[in-house]
């Protein structure tokens, strides 16, 4: 809300500077985010009278002007403007002035004559884009008057951030009320009663309310013989000071009252109302209205409209229609001053997508008891600035009076919430400063009558406690150092998810966070349609961000692409985040916490000692194995599987406790092409919940003190036999096996096609004793035999 | 006799020269054998002593023995020197250029937002707050209604909410976690709830439709606004360091009353005024207030018996400030050139 300092001063006498006003308002909860001196750019510019204009001795087109600028001596300036005349009043910029048009005025010699200032055009002053000559000022101003004052810019604008609970702060009156506790004078509203003449209003028009719920009170006045035209200077300047454009004198007054009192008004051309009357009713289904912003709108039955004898002429409290608008031919004005139901008003504005200055105030609740004053003052002002006559009487239809709130306030409760033990006197003093009326019911208990401007906002005891806190000052509320701030539960490291993060970062993986919004089309392209049941956004920011991510992988791939485009070819990334799939069978919203990883390029930075291994499937699998090991989760199984974004034959599911909890594999070339990526990227994604839930505390097992002995075995096996089965069998056969390592793999010319040669190293070890060679040999032989029996493998 | 003494003299000179010139241990050993070996020249002289006249014998014998001792000593010295040289040469052969680059593994890192969050969590944990979590897909009850923000309340404008097909929504703040926690647990309560939140803001350098918050909630008997101030002052001291001061400004949130915006003394200029704080000396870092009684009513706590406070802050904002990052969009862009700096 833009507030004019001068405007505030017209309502309340006070000595505070604009800076002090800003500070006080901020202190009590109305953050002043902007404080602008409106006269900036006009410092050192004064009104000056041209006493004598003579020819420049050395130049035909230049003149010498002797200017009276209010000082004891006159000033001689050189001027080239054609319109300079003796006796005229012009803006004079003294040397040193920095003009809004961009120029800095200096003492200069022009063709041998010294000029000690400059007479300015509107363009030079930054007031217009083009100008033909000097700016001519109204000669009533005394020479020496600062130009800012002449232009009505001797003012400051305060930009206040109005909180959602304070509808009353959308007006100068509201701001003035909040300043009252800081000043000794009381608010004094200007006299508003208009001089009435001519016919009684009831002979001119009538008002009927058919929707009392939507419109609890409707007041109207009629102003006759109005001459619509430009507003007087003071009105234009007032509006300009808060950044509003002048339209015409009648509309300007309604805007002026809106900004001063917070009461939206509407001016109808009475002659354009069919049957010359007002009916407040619900709109009919699909009833049409052509609003002031020149859009035809279709209304619904929940909306309140102002209608004339036949048709709607305004969406109540939102916007009027074009047809009944006041224009230069208007002579009879019907002025509406109403209270509209905040909830209905908000729903209507929302449904129509029209948020106006009026609706902003109605939806936050206007001041019910102020209406008679507002309608009088507006009528009086219209009569004044548009030389009209106010018809006798006022229409005031009030089917649902809105009573002022009465709230009980316990002193004890104030202390319990704020920790401040106010005396009853202090409570009375603080609250009455904001026009709350207090009545003591008995010791420690007040009955508080709330001002009508705060009806929507102050309804409960705690609302009054808040008033006390902010008036008293938050900084003055004492800080008892009594809470015991001892550590909480759950561990300082934030639990296993955080451990996992730190571990992965330590293993060289970079954490990324990516958007939760993805493109359903792209997902369906790479996953195939129907794989996911998306959570769709009703109004996405863009159509490429229309659904919630059902998997972390697509965005992780986008991260990879982004970095590859930056020529970072070695990447190891991970993300932990929520995914959403409302697939039938999913419980609740199908929100799941996942971990995803992606690797590509080499295993470490380029180094002179030699090439690094690639970050391939096994590098990624190894990372997961290490993680699982470190988390002490029960062994996970990697089982060959297929997956839409993973290349056939390189995809595996990760199985935990018989349940598939994740996938790992190399990016499929189809998906890679779709996402414009090379295919040498390996990916994994897994559900975090089962993994973290089964993470266990490490349990110590004594380290064997006895040496182990190793036996190596090379095995030829068919390509369809899995290594995991082989190792499992080795362990199953002999309890003496402590460790099985795969130390070589060969596939090629030296062995029959379709076969793989695996070399295993088996460590035999006991915790109780040193094993004898014969024992180890026997166990080893048993293993070899069982492998042949079970898999038909041939030891080499 | 003179012949013997001269011979000794001559041999001494020759031996000194030879030993000093020996360039290897092998050569030195050869000289030793030539001089002191069984058939060596000095050995020969000692052997021939019998042929020297008895009168001269003591003198010649003495000279010859001295020569033998001297040669032994010189040989020993030269051997030590040669051995040292040899060791040095060997060392020189296996020396490395210690200035060559080391073999580094990739260094990963935690995302700057999580790094900041973790720090905030740690501080709040040390002050007795425990972690609580809630879903990102929420319903209107938990996100708004129970937080004293009924439909048609103008405060909803400030949360331009993402609605999902079917009527659910993406949480616009972490406050619904408060509600879920209180519904499931009796007071007293001391929790923090970090997480991702969503608002339909147009992205720019300071706005992102996806951002992150931490919410704190403290409910007990006799908790006052003073306790809220104490807790947040302690939080700021522990997070930003010992000179930090806070400023509480009245404000409005539907679910707290009284409500406050909290400014922290600028961590860069210590309130002298700088570019970051736009000259004010203060940085707006969090919002807070006393839990509104209607929130307690919504979760079935007795508002007459229990009082409490809640506070919330934007992790993105704190992270931007602490690391002097000038664009919030960098957080979700996943450029490792940016991320690896943390
Ligand atoms: Zn600063």
TrEMBL record, chain A:
Residues 39-148 form the TRNA-binding domain. Keywords: Aminoacyl-tRNA synthetase, ATP-binding, Cytoplasm, Ligase, Magnesium, Metal-binding, Nucleotide-binding, Protein biosynthesis, RNA-binding, tRNA-binding. GO terms for molecular function: ATP binding; magnesium ion binding; phenylalanine-tRNA ligase activity; tRNA binding. Binds 2 magnesium ions per tetramer. It is found in: Cytoplasm. One of its GO terms (cellular component) is phenylalanine-tRNA ligase complex. One of its GO terms (biological process) is phenylalanyl-tRNA aminoacylation. It catalyses: tRNA(Phe) + L-phenylalanine + ATP = L-phenylalanyl-tRNA(Phe) + AMP + diphosphate + H(+). Residues 704-796 form the FDX-ACB domain. Its EC number is 6.1.1.20. Residues 402-479 form the B5 domain. Mg(2+) binds at residues 457, 463, 466-467. CDD domains: PheRS_beta_core, tRNA_bind_bactPheRS. Its cofactor is Mg(2+). Belongs to the phenylalanyl-tRNA synthetase beta subunit family. Type 1 subfamily. Tetramer of two alpha and two beta subunits. This is Phenylalanine--tRNA ligase beta subunit. It comes from Candidatus Glassbacteria bacterium RIFCSPLOWO2_12_FULL_58_11.
UniProtKB/TrEMBL annotation, chain B:
Its cofactor is Mg(2+). InterPro entries: aa-tRNA-synth_II, aa-tRNA-synth_II/BPL/LPL, Phe-tRNA-synth_IIc_asu, Phe-tRNA_ligase_II_N, Phe_tRNA_ligase_alpha1_bac, Phenylalanyl-tRNA_Synthase, tRNA-bd_arm. Gene3D superfamilies: Bira Bifunctional Protein, Domain 2 (3.30.930.10). It comes from the Bacteria. Keywords: Aminoacyl-tRNA synthetase, ATP-binding, Cytoplasm, Ligase, Magnesium, Metal-binding, Nucleotide-binding, Protein biosynthesis. It is found in: Cytoplasm. The keyword Magnesium applies. Residues 120-333 form the Aminoacyl-transfer RNA synthetases class-II family profile domain. GO terms for biological process: phenylalanyl-tRNA aminoacylation. PROSITE patterns: AA_TRNA_LIGASE_II. Its main location: cytoplasm. It catalyses: tRNA(Phe) + L-phenylalanine + ATP = L-phenylalanyl-tRNA(Phe) + AMP + diphosphate + H(+). GO terms for molecular function: ATP binding; magnesium ion binding; phenylalanine-tRNA ligase activity; tRNA binding. Binds 2 magnesium ions per tetramer. Mg(2+) binds at residue 257. Its EC number is 6.1.1.20. Pfam families: Phe_tRNA-synt_N (PF02912), tRNA-synt_2d (PF01409). Belongs to the class-II aminoacyl-tRNA synthetase family. Phe-tRNA synthetase alpha subunit type 1 subfamily. Tetramer of two alpha and two beta subunits. This is Phenylalanine--tRNA ligase alpha subunit. It comes from Candidatus Glassbacteria bacterium RIFCSPLOWO2_12_FULL_58_11. The lineage of its organism: Bacteria, Candidatus Glassiibacteriota.
């Amino acid at each position: 809300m833009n507030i004019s300092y001068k405007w505030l001063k017209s309502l309340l006498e006070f000595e505070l500077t604009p800076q002090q006003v800003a500070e006080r308002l901020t202190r009590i909860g109305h953050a002043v985010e902007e404080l602008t001196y409106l006269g900036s750019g006009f410092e050192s510019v004064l009104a000056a009278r041209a006493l004598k204009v003579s020819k420049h001795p050395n130049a035909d087109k230049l003149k010498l002007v002797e200017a009276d600028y209010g000082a004891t001596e006159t000033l001689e300036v050189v001027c080239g403007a054609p319109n300079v005349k003796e006796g005229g009043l012009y803006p004079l910029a003294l040397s040193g002035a920095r003009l809004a048009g961009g120029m800095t005025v200096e003492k200069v010699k022009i063709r041998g004559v010294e000029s000690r200032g400059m007479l300015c055009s509107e363009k030079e002053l930054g007031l217009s884009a083009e100008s033909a000559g000097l700016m001519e000022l109204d000669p009533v101003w005394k020479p020496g008057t600062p130009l800012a004052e002449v232009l009505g810019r001797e003012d400051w604008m305060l930009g206040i951030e109005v909180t959602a609970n304070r509808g009353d702060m959308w007006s100068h009156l509201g701001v003035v009320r909040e300043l009252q506790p800081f000043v000794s004078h009381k608010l004094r509203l200007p006299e508003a009663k208009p001089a009435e003449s001519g016919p009684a209003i009831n002979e001119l028009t009538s008002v009927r309310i058919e929707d009392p719920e939507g419109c609890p009170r409707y007041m109207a006045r009629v102003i006759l013989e109005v001459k619509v035209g430009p507003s007087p200077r003071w009105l234009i300047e007032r509006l300009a000071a808060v950044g509003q454009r002048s339209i015409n004198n009648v509309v300007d007054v309604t805007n002026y009252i809106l900004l001063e009192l917070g009461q939206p008004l509407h001016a109808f051309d009475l002659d354009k109302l069919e049957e010359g009357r007002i009916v407040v009713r619900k709109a009919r289904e699909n009833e049409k209205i052509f609003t002031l912003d020149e859009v035809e709108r279709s209304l619904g039955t929940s909306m309140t409209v102002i209608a004339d004898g036949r048709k709607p002429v305004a969406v109540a409290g939102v916007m009027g229609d074009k047809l009944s608008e006041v224009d230069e031919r208007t002579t009879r004005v019907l002025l509406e001053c109403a209270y509209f139901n905040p909830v209905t008003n908000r729903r209507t504005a929302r449904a129509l997508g029209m948020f106006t200055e009026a609706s902003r105030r109605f939806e936050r609740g206007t001041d019910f008891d102020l209406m008679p004053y507002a309608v009088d003052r507006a009528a009086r002002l219209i009569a004044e600035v548009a030389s009209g006559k106010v018809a006798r009487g006022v229409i005031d239809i009030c089917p649902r009076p809105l009573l002022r709130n009465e709230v009980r306030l316990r002193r004890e409760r104030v202390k319990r919430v704020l920790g401040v033990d106010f005396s009853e006197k202090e409570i009375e003093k603080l609250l009455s400063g904001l026009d709350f009326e207090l009545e003591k019911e008995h010791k420690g208990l007040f009955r508080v009558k709330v001002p009508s401007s705060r009806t929507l906002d102050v309804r409960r005891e705690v609302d009054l406690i808040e008033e006390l806190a902010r008036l008293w000052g938050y900084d003055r509320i004492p800080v008892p150092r009594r809470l015991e701030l001892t550590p909480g539960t759950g561990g300082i490291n934030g639990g296993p998810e955080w451990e996992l993060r730190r571990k992965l970062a330590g293993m060289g993986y970079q954490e990324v966070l990516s958007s939760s919004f993805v493109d359903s089309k792209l997902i369906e392209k790479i996953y195939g349609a129907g794989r996911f049941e998306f959570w769709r956004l009703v109004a996405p920011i863009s159509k490429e961000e229309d659904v919630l991510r059902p998997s972390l992988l697509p965005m992780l791939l986008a991260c990879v692409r982004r970095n590859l485009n930056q020529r970072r070819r070695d990447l190891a990334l991970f993300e932990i985040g929520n995914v959403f799939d409302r697939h039938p069978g999913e419980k609740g919203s199908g929100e799941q916490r996942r971990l995803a990883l992606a690797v590509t390029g080499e295993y470490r930075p380029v180094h002179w000692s030699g090439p690094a291994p690639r970050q391939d499937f096994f590098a990624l699998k190894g990372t997961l194995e290490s993680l699982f090991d470190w988390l002490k989760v029960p062994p996970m199984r990697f089982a060959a599987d297929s997956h839409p974004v993973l290349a056939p034959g390189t995809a595996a599911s990760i199985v935990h406790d018989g349940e598939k909890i994740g996938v790992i594999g190399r990016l499929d070339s189809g998906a890679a092409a779709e996402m414009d990526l090379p295919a040498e990227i390996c990916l994994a994604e897994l559900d975090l919940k089962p993994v973290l839930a089964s993470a266990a505390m490490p349990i110590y097992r004594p380290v064997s003190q006895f040496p182990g002995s190793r036996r190596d075995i090379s095995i030829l096996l068919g390509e369809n036999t899995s290594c995991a089965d082989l190792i499992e069998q080795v362990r199953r056969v002999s309890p003496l096996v402590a460790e099985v390592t795969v130390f070589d793999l060969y596939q090629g010319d030296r062995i029959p096609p379709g076969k793989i040669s695996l070399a295993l190293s088996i460590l035999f070890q006991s915790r109780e004793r040193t094993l004898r060679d014969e024992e180890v040999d026997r166990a080893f032989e048993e293993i070899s035999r069982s492998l042949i029996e079970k898999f038909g493998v041939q030891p080499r | 006799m003179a012949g013997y003494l001269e011979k000794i003299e001559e041999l001494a000179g020759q031996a000194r020269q030879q030993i000093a010139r020996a360039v290897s241990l092998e050569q030195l050993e050869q000289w030793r054998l030539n001089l002191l070996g069984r058939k060596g020249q000095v050995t020969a002289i000692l052997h021939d002593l019998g042929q020297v006249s008895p009168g001269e014998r003591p003198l010649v014998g003495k000279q010859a023995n001295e020569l033998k001792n001297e040669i032994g000593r010189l040989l020993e010295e030269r051997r030590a020197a040669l051995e040292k040289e040899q060791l040095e040469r060997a060392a020189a052969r296996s020396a490395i250029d210690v200035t060559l680059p080391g073999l580094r593994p990739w260094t990963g890192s935690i995302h700057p937002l999580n790094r900041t969050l973790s720090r905030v969590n740690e501080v709040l944990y040390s002050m007795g707050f425990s972690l609580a979590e809630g879903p990102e897909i929420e319903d209107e009850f938990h996100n708004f209604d129970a937080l004293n923000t009924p439909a048609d309340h103008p405060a909803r404008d400030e949360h331009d909410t993402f609605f999902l097909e079917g009527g659910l929504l993406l949480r616009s703040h972490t406050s619904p976690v408060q509600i879920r926690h209180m519904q499931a647990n009796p007071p007293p309560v001391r929790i923090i709830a970090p997480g991702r939140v969503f608002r339909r803001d147009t992205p720019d350098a300071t706005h992102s439709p996806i951002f992150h918050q931490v919410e704190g909630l403290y409910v007990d008997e006799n908790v006052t606004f003073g306790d809220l101030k104490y807790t947040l002052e302690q939080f700021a001291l522990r997070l930003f360091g010992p000179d930090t001061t806070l400023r509480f400004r009245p404000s409005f949130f539907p679910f707290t009353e009284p409500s406050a915006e909290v400014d922290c003394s600028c961590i860069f200029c210590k309130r002298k005024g700088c570019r970051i704080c736009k000259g004010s000396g203060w940085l707006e870092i969090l919002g807070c207030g006393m839990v509104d009684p209607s929130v307690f009513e919504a979760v079935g706590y007795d508002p007459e018996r229990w009082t409490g406070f809640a506070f919330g802050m934007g992790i993105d904002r704190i992270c931007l400030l602490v690391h002097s990052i000038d664009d919030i969009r960098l957080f979700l862009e996943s450029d490792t050139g940016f991320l690896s700096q943390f």
